[in-house]
Amino acid sequence: MAGVLNTEIWKNWEKSGKQEFIKFCIPLLKDESKSPLFNKHGKTTNIISYINELIDKGIQGIIKTDQVSATLRELVALHPDIPSIILDVLNLADAVTSQIDHEESRERSNFCTIVKDCEKFLSDKLLKERLEIDTLQEVGVLKNGTFYSKFIKVKTKLYYKQRKFNLFREECEGFSKLVTELNSEFTENTNSKDLIGIVQSLIGCFNLDPNRVLDIILESFENKPKDSKIFIPLINSYMNDSRIISEVLSTKFGFLRNNEQEIPQSLYILTAQLLQHKIIQLDDIYYWLLPEDKTMIADSEKSLKDAKEYVRKLQIISLNNKEKEDAPEENDNDSDSYEGNQKLGLCEALLLIGDWENAQTLIKRLPERYSVNYEPIASALCGLLHYIIEPLYSEYGIVSSKIPRTPLAPYEGNIKPPQAHTFLELKDIALPMFFMLGASLRYDTILLCKVVRLAKAALSACGIDNPKCSAPSGNSIYYDILSLIDITILPSLSYLDCNCCIAEDIWTLLKLYPYQIRYCLYSRWKNETYSLYPDLLRKRADSEKQIKNIMKRVSKENVKPVGRLIGKLTHCSPGFLFDYVLLQIQVYNNLIAPVVDSLKYLTNLSYDVLGFCLIESLANAEKKRVKHDSTSISSWLQSLSSFSGAVYKKYSIELSGLLQFVANQLKAQKSLDLLILKEVVQKMAGVDAAEDLTMDQLNALAGGELLKSEAGYFSQIRNTKKSSLRLKEAMAENDLAVALCLLMAQQNYCVVYRETQKNSHLKLVGKLSDQCQDTLVQFGTFLGSTMSVDEYVNKLPSIQSMLTDYHIPLEVAFFLARPMFNHAINQKYDQIRKLDPGYKKMSSSIKNQKYCEAVTEVMEPVCSSLTLLHPPRVWEDVSAQFLATFWSLTMYDLYIPEEVYQQVINKTKMQAQACMESGAKSKKEQERYQTLAEKLQDEKKKQTEHVEKIFYRLKQEKDSWFLSKSVKTAKNETITRFLQLCIFPRCTFTQIDAVYCAKFVHTIHLLKTPNFSTLLFYDRLFCDVTYSITSCTENEAMRYGRFLFAMLETVMRWHRSKEVFEKECANYPGFVTKYRKNNQHADNLDNVDYENYRHVCHKWHYKLAKAMVTCLESKEYVQIRNSLIILIKIIPHFPVLIKLSQFIEKRIEKVRDEEKNNRQDLFTLSSSYLGLLKQKNSSGQMMKEADFHVPLDKEKGGKGHESRIEGANKHNGEVKDDSSKEKKSRQSSDDTRSSSKPQIISVDITGSSNNKIEKQIEEQGKEKRRSERNEEKEREKEKRRERREEKANAKDEKYEKQYSRSQDERYIEKLSPKDESRYTNEQMDRYYDDRGGGHYYRSDIRDDRDLLASGNGSIGRSQEAEPDRDSKRRKVDSSSKNSKHEERKSNSDLFPEKTEKRERSTKPKDKRDKMSEEEKEMRKERKLGRKRDRLDEVQLEMKRRREEEKASKMVSPYRGANGEMMEPSPIHIREKHHRTREISPYQRDRSHERSEPRDKHRRSSENKRR
Fold first, then answer.
1. CA angle, 306 as apex, 303 and 310 as ends, to 5°?
2. Fewer CB in a 10 Å sphere around the end CB: N or C, the chain?
3. Count of beta carbons in the 10 Å neighbourhood of residue 260
4. What is the pLDDT of residue 712?
């Protein structure tokens, strides 16, 4: 039972309750020496509640009164303090029962009975002292009725009647003797006991008043404060009552205050000494002092409020000059509020005598920072601190012993403040005083310097000498110094004016802490400290006004004077000033350069704060990082990023915080802030991320490092050695180099998906992707150029780790790993070479062989890691070694820019010559230029040797690059893999990589690489670039355009000169058009000749034009922008045909007109391209189609049918073992082409025998056509019904999708869902097919093996990758569906300037536009049926062709150039309903074979129905 008695005790009181009650009380009363009210732990006991409850039960009548009295008697016997407790409880019960009405007077009578019984065992004196007089009389304790009147008289005499001293009896001689004795000079032999005896004798002899004697003693002590050793014991002996002494002192204070006299400091010193020696207590004197606490609190709040009002008025801008008010005047009320403040005077006195304990108590009672803002108190506390830290400062803080120091005056008196001899004592004794002092340390700059030096010494003693050191554990002073800086040092610095020396001294302390801690201190200093001090608020407002005026005058002309003003302002309070400067820079980016130049007068502390303010501004979450249209990065972020790069380059500011901020943003998948890193690397390291480089610059970038620095960039950024070294060290210190690389690579991989999920604008997504890519390349280039190779290899993870562990894209991983490959290969090469004892005399061929061995050994694990990245079917087409070779090489390995080397060397020699002519002053410059020229020569020689090794390596590897699978699928899959895994990822990576891709393709062509078709590669590349253009960002489009430019440059170089073509293309495997099982070509007829190559070039130009027009007409921003960018890039080589140029120009003008008031960037691009195009047209660089290639004439007549029959017999790329049969097949297929090209096949077609053969063939063709027409009419109805049923059949639908549409048609339908646009594109295809006849690649079918359809070298088809299709199946070529009027229509669609009159007479087009849906459906069904019927006729037509070939060979007397028999080439004439066909050479069993071809008759009847 803890504190509460059980109710059963009262119910069973007589039986057992009393004993239990006594039992509860005995443990509380067993110790008579201690009060029963408190236990041994100092906590109150329950004895009072027990007694109170007992008496209460007796008053209520629950327990009889005599039993209550008996129990109380027993308790009194247990402890002497119980009577006092009982009377206190009775006094409380008296007050309660006296309020009860008379009707319930039973309780009052019970109370009186209990009191009457207590009289027997309680003291009568104690009863009279504690109980009221009325109660005592009621009970009968006081029987005399005059007691009350006597009590009043005694009380009046004691408290209210003044004691009358006989002043006349006092003799003045006694006071004079007393004053003389107390104010005489005390010697060392003077004793306080003797003095007290004298005082007492004088009082007795002269009847002196004791209070007046005390006053004289205190005044004497006041005049002689140094004699505290005498007066303190004297006062203790004379009057040992603190209350009386406090009253005497308060009388003195009150007298002086009432007489409006200034209170002397001696009185405060007297009071302080009495407090220090504990003669009086602070509580006794504190309440006698003025003013009251609430008055000081009100003054403190008013001061802060006035300061805020002052700041507010300074920020008001008056629009009316007449009513413009002057700056608000400061109210100088601070000194008035401190004047006459007795509490502050006492506090100062306490500090002067060194009583920190009482002073601290007094300061805490006053409003916060109110007392220490009073300069006398702050100065006194500073003096005390000087004394405390003196021993420690003498040991650790003195700069030089030769500098004389003024000794400090020692404290006098019995009690001296303790001094700090160790840093732990400094922590315990001095630091609390510094914390209390706060910003008032500004009143003593010497002490400020001392404490800064001591703090540095303390950190050095803890082993902290640089920011990298970890914080010591245990009871160290490390974190206390942080509090000291935050609370005292930095706020004190804010009060100082232009004291750069103190700022530099503070920086030497701050720089020992890491930037994270420093930035936290700066944040509190800038954002919180100023709001605590009214004076600082006013100072801040004045400084802001000054910086605003200064920023209005910043310009390039007045950098120095403005810089000095900014420096003076920022020495002591830099934070908020830099905020305003950065705000102005965000608004006006033209201020960046002059502001950066004007910051050269700042202190190191100010530079560090500037770095913090910059990061704080960049991390501002309230500002939007994109513009309102959400398509580009905000201008404020761009300005701050540019300013960051400039200021970090020019001044030595720590970069760790900024780099870590960027890394944290990347971790959060925010790539906008990469702009900061991009600017910093560009400015500090001189690594530019420029995209629009010239070809000379790109060629220079293919050279060595020296050539790159001299000619590879737009601007030669000088003086970057120190800044780039600082950037490198900052990344090394925080291990951010590798982290940033990997984070950027991962962000580049996911930025598109991440931003797309946020519904960001597509333009912004592209910019972010470009920025991420550019910064990654720039950063990787910086690391490769600044780090040593060993550092680079040690820091970056291996290529296997990047690919598998970090999931870095292939192109980025190889970009980062290439320096490691080169370093490893060179090391291994040196090892292998030196194993040979005669390695110094080794020939170049043996060196190359050793180099290949080193390459194989180094790249083998890389190839193994690549194998795991792709499924096995990928490696059936290309080898992992080829992938590793492609990705590990650069332009430096393949190409020597000899012209650029020579230009730079000549320029350097000219500069050296100019320096020599200018005089002796330029001798150093001349030597530098000469040395540079020599270094360039050596670099060129070194690169030449390196390229020779690389080409030897490529020649050794080329045979294993492209695997020779079945010839049936020949090169199609190989080209697809090459484009997919190599070309497309790398050509859009950087500008130099784009050029490298083109150079690599040209290299493997010149190496005569087996199983690689150069012609097919170009065809696959140029035939449809629409998808590639659409999927590019802006910068990727520039790179892709650069790649196409380089590819077109090679193509057009071969096109311009037959000699160059014969030298670089003839007899090369890349231009072979038929591939056999042994991968060898029989003769030159398997290669494309020069004129057919020009036809192919014409086709490629047409395809490019078609793709560009498709993008321009798409209305999609990205497609239009990218197509314009690419067109600008490739304009030197495309367009070169006048008609294509006019066609593209029309489309560009349309885009320009539409975007004039909408998308200005597209308008600018289109206008720029039009200007370039017109300039090219006017310069005469365009050519007509006849100049570009030899077009084919279209003739009318019946010979076309025989030509059609003969041409139908050709074998399209059939693989044969017998070379003679293959030659005859080519001769047969040649007959299907026009004879208007005698330079391709020189065959004399004049002579009588030739004419007879032609007539016979023509008659046979007419008979067959008549029979076919009759059969066609009979089968037409049956076919319609069958085709309707087959429409619903899924198998036929799949068949239709697989064979009826080409790649171009499918893409056109996707882009142009409307019939009109689809027809237009189809007409363009028909136009192309009609114009080129059989001498072009077919635009809709791409063959896997045979690029040439006939022996005259004309190209049959281009190739298309279909990995899901069986390698033995091929598409069947569908011939053109154009009649002559359709040909004219397609011509008018391609060249709209000639179509106005022709469109009026083109009725079939109008009828087609008005066709019903049912007619369109039937037309599609007929189309499907025709193509299926062609498959049925394959076997019979092949058989018929063989027979006709035998007949033609028997009658043909002509032989080719190689001596073989060749049949004459019949004239190929297209009739109205005539279509050429190319039949698949593969024989397949068909159950529905037809005996005769029906294609011509079906088309004739179809056109009639139309």
1. 140
2. N
3. 7
4. 64
Instruction: Report d(CA 1234, CA 1228) in Å as an integer.
Output: 13
Cβ proximity of 1476 and 1204 under 8 Å: yes
Mean pLDDT of 1271-1281: 64
Chain center to CA of 285: 63
Whether 1338 and 1373 have beta carbons less than 8 Å apart is answered as: yes
Average pLDDT over residues 522-538: 92
CA distance 1456 to 1449: 13
744-772 pLDDT, tens digit each: 988 887 888 877 777 788 888 888 888 89
What is the average pLDDT value for the chain, to the nearest integer? 77
Q: Rounded to 5 degrees, what are φ and ψ at 970? A: 5, -105
Half-sphere exposure of 255 (CA within 13 A, CB side): 8
Grade residue 33 by pLDDT with cuts at 50, 70 and 90. Answer: confident
Residue 771 contacts residue 671 (beta carbons within 8 Å): yes
**272-296 pLDDT per residue, tens:** 999 999 999 999 899 889 889 999 9
As a whole-number percent, the residues of the chain with pLDDT over 90 amount to 34
Task: Report whether 541 contacts 316 (CB < 8 A).
Answer: no
Name 977's Cβ contacts closer than 8 Å, sequence gap at least 6. 874, 877, 878
pLDDT in tens, 107-117: 888 888 888 88
**Whether 1082 contacts 1216, CB under 8 Å:** no
pLDDT at residue 1214 above 50?
no
CA atoms within 13 A on the CB side of 75: 32
Residue 428 DSSP symbol: I
Q: Is the pLDDT of residue 715 over 50?
A: yes
- Mean pLDDT: which of 318-332, 506-520, 783-797 is highest? 506-520
| Intra-chain end-to-end CA distance of the chain, in Å | 115
The one-letter code for the residue type at 269 is I
CA distance 1031 to 752: 11
Beta-bridge mates of residue 962: 878
* Nearest-angstrom CA–CA distance, 446 and 405: 12
What is the C-alpha separation between 374 and 1255, in angstroms, rounded?
128
Q: Is 1429 helix (H, G, I), strand (E, B) or coil?
A: helix
Please give the structure tokens belonging to residue 590. Answer: 């033209």
HSE, side-chain direction, 13 A CA sphere, residue 242: 14
DSSP string of 984-1032, one letter each residue? HHHHTT-HHHHHHHHHHHHHHHHTT-TT--HHHHHHHHHH--HHHHHT-
Asked whether 1428 and 1410 are in contact (CB, 8 A), the reply is no
Tell me the per-residue pLDDT of 66-112, one tens digit each, with 9 for 90 and over: 888 888 888 888 888 888 888 888 888 888 888 776 555 788 888 88
Query: Which of 1073, 1203, 1238, 1086 has the alpha carbon at shortest distance from 1467?
Result: 1203
Identity of the amino acid at 615: I
1332 pLDDT above the threshold of 50: no
Token output for 1464:
């004459």
3-class state of residue 725 by DSSP: helix
DSSP classification of residue 470: P
DSSP state of 603: -
Please tell me the predicted confidence (pLDDT) of residue 913. Answer: 83
Q: Which residues contact 1404 (CB under 8 A, 6 or more apart)?
A: 1381, 1382, 1506
Amino acid 1087: pLDDT:
79
Helices 810-835 and 737-757 meet at what angle, rounded to 10? 150
Prior bond to 291 cis, omega within 30?
yes
Return d(Cα 102, Cα 940) in angstroms, integer. 127
Residue 266's contacts (CB-CB under 8 Å, 6 or more residues apart) are: 222, 223, 225
> What span, in angstroms and rounded, lies between the C-alpha atoms of 141 and 135?
9
Q: DSSP assignment, residue 430?
A: I
Provide the residue count of the chain. Answer: 1506
